Amino acid sequence: MSGPSPTAPKPPSDDDPDPLLRSDLRDHINEAVHRHNPTFDGALFNGGTILQLALTAAASFLPGSNWIPNAPFLAGICAALAALLITIERSLSFGARWRFHTEMQTGYKSILDMIDFYQCITVDDEKAKYRASIWNALYALRSREGGIPGGSTSSTNTAGGA
User: Fold this and answer.
1) SS3 sequence, 17-56?
2) DSSP H helix total and E strand total for the chain
3) Which tens digits make up the pLDDT trace of 92-127?
4) Rg (CA), the chain
């Protein structure tokens, strides 16, 4: 599932001297917000956790039940499936990925809020300081883009990693 390839922002023109107020910058940030939708990884993490708990509970209760034929065999199957799901979640880091996407999406939304607030500042000295803090926040956030947990080139610690 690949989205549209990002394009470089246009250089500032004489008509629009403030790069923070350009619509293409806002468009790029909005694209980043949409790229970091945490729903899929969150559903896999939380759904997997619920399924793991249900399978573990079944593996605990099944051996003592007399009304289900082959209960000990089914308990073993439930325990094996729970272990498999735990292994998959640990290796693919759905929980860490969910938190990563949530943090990144929230960070980009925060920068959009900062840009909106920036337009309300009237004092030039304050505007310059606030502009610098927006660029620093954007740089810090963009620097984290390659650190998705569970990725092969990731240097970010995951829930089960060191």
Assistant:
1) CCHHHCHHHHHHHHHHHHHCCCHHHHHHHHHHHHHHHHHH
2) 5, 0
3) 999 999 999 999 999 999 999 998 888 888 888 888
4) 24
